[in-house]
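Deliverable D5.2: sample structural annotation.
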Amino acid sequence: MAASKTSAKKAAAKKPSRKKAVAKRPAARKPAPKSAGAPVNGTAEVDAYMQKLKHPRKAEMEAVRAIILNADRKISERVKWNAPSFFYIQDLAAFNWRSTKFAHLILLFPDGKGMSDSPGLLEGTHANRREAKFHDMADVQAKKPALEKLVKAWVKRMGAAM
């Protein structure tokens, strides 16, 4: 009985250690091979997105979408950044649906080299992206040849980089 009292006193006397908890840094992730996790064409997903979209320039967005997809069969689409986007090997472009005065397309140039275009299509001076704005259907039709040319050049450039 005396031994059990002594054990109880020793257990009560021990206090839990109060070491500071240190968050562990997650192990560094190895980059995935280029073929792993390749984007999947999401035309059905984009169709559903566009069907639900309430936007004053929805018709212009649909027309631009058709131009991009018909410019080169290698271009695919999906919903990324909560908007219809286009890709081949890397991201090419995405709509900015928050702009309501025009259909706003953001074009990406991941290597930072940009692309030359016909005057009047691309705006901005960022190293890795440009913007194209389509104010109405007449504007879409006027910029169609330049957009087709740009998409074809982009696909050719991405294919050459492989």
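Annotation notes: The chain has one domain: 43-161. Residues 12 and 134 are 76 Å apart (CA to CA).
The annotation will be released with the project's public dataset once the embargo ends.
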